[in-house]
Amino acid sequence: MPKYEPPQELPARLLTDAEMIAACQQRDFSKIFQLVKGRAGIYPSLIARRCDMTPSRVGEVLAGQRVVRDMTVIERVADGLRIPGRLLGLAPREWEPSDGQQPLLPISAVVPTWMPPAAATEATEPMAIADDLTDPEFLIALIERQLPQHYTGANFFGARQTIPPVVHYAQSVMSLLETTNGTTRQGLLRIGAQVAEFLGWLFQDLGDFRTAAYWSDRSMEWAQEAADDHMQSYLLFRKSNQATSRMSAERAVGLARAAQRLPGLTPQLTALAVQQEAQGYALMRNPKAALAKFDEACALASEPNPSGATGTLDTSYCTPTYIEIQRANCWIDLGDPMRAIDLFERELATFPQVYRNDRSVYLARLARAYVKADEPERGAEMATKALTIVTHTGSARTMAELAAVAKAVSHCRDMPAVATFNERFESIRDGFAS
Predict the structure, then answer these.
(1) Which residues are CB-contacts of 229 (< 8 A; sequence separation ≥ 6)?
(2) C-alpha distances in angstroms, 70 versus 44, 49, 73, 76?
(3) DSSP code for 4
(4) How far is the C-alpha of 44 from the C-alpha of 369, rounded, in Å?
């Protein structure tokens, strides 16, 4: 084994960089090592010494030929490179300051980030009170009335303000499931699955993928026990979406097809799964299959939903406009940014105001399309508009898109619009970290 190298601190700007944070959350050590090498000047031989690894193994990780999964190795990397534990989904490391001054993820101000399921339950569930006479039926009705309001709030204001009350819903459902049986338990399972799915999305939007995965898995567990086919289909669609974000085309298509196989789906639920299948084909560089599926999804999204068919499961956002915006994003991947620009511009002109959080994501993607079309100034203008929204919503999805834009226009800093965007982006990124 290599001689151990005493660790030194990584630059603060690297630990608060959106690209580094995303790589840590996904435990993408190939990307982490690349960033450490490129931005901190720590070369593979030094990474090996600090992390008590062989240089050949570090080289394999850098090349994507080896995936780091062993917890002892992950902990050695965290300690050797001085990456705070919370960034990698670990407990705080012994060397971290105890006064709360370590770099924070954007979500940290709301609730704790990833913890093992047992610890998560312990941390989020209130203490049992012997004379608590909460009626499960009352709680189900209460959540059903209030959940749509939280959907609207998250769509406009972002996830930060929405998470605390929704976590309380999940706590209450967990507590009552311990003592409730029969049809009332089925009702709790159904509403609990919807609450947990919503939490999964909220945490994902803020970049906390491990906590998002915990709640999504809990949602699937409850939906399966409740035999809720609609929710199971929706969760498979969500998992396909996550596979797409990780550029896993085959998995995205497979999960999207699985979502469509469940019986009795509404047109909107089917449309969501079909457009995910289209995105998978786009990643495969198969435009013919992708465009055919987008056409199918658009037709389905135009059909009316049966009244009350999905309960409080919110699929109202799945409209032809939503489908066309997803198609626009795929045109970037298919190498035709001008088509992407035309679609984004047309559809965003009529995009409902309530979906402000998503609007910032789409503006950032429009910016990326302009940059791909060799119009960096126009791209910077669109990216600056997205920044105006993300300061209020805190969306990690948007910041990840904007980080890609910032990297793509880095060679055009002398252009006024690009200079303005870069200055504001760096300021907002640093503000998120602090």
Answers:
(1) 262, 263, 264, 265
(2) 19, 18, 5, 10
(3) P
(4) 34
CA distances to 32, 48, 301 from 3, rounded to whole Å, are 22, 9, 60
Q: Which two tokens stand for residue 100?
A: 């709360």
Domains of the chain: 1-97 (1.10.260), 116-227 (no CATH), 352-434 (no CATH)
Look at residues 84, 97, 109 and name the one whose alpha carbon lies nearest to residue 25: 84
Largest CA distance in the chain: 68
On the CB side of 343, how many CA atoms lie within 13 Å of its CA?
21
CA dist 61 and 71 (Å) reads: 15
pTM, entire model = 0.68
Per-residue pLDDT band at 342 (split at 50, 70, 90): very high
Q: What is the Cα gyration radius of the chain?
A: 23
User: Per-residue pLDDT tens for 85-98?
Assistant: 888 877 778 888 75
What is the pLDDT, as a whole number, of residue 222?
Answer: 93
Give me the pLDDT at residue 128, please: 40
Distances (CA, A) of 271 to 183, 253, 254, 319, 347: 31, 14, 15, 9, 18
Question: How many other C-beta atoms can be found within 10 angstroms of the C-beta atom of residue 282?
Answer: 26
Which range (176-190, 280-294, 298-312) has the least confidence?
298-312
Q: Tokens at residue 31, please?
A: 């990307």
Q: Band of the pLDDT at 264, cuts 50, 70, 90?
A: confident
User: How confident is the model over 6-27, as pLDDT tens digits?
Assistant: 567 788 888 888 788 888 878 8
pLDDT digits (tens, 9 = 90+) for 96-115: 875 443 333 333 333 333 33
Q: 293, exposed or middle or buried, with CB in 10 Å at 0-12, 13-18, 19+?
A: buried
Where helices occur in 18-109 by DSSP H, the ranges are 18-25, 29-40, 44-51, 55-62, 71-81
Task: Say what the pLDDT of residue 122 is.
Answer: 39
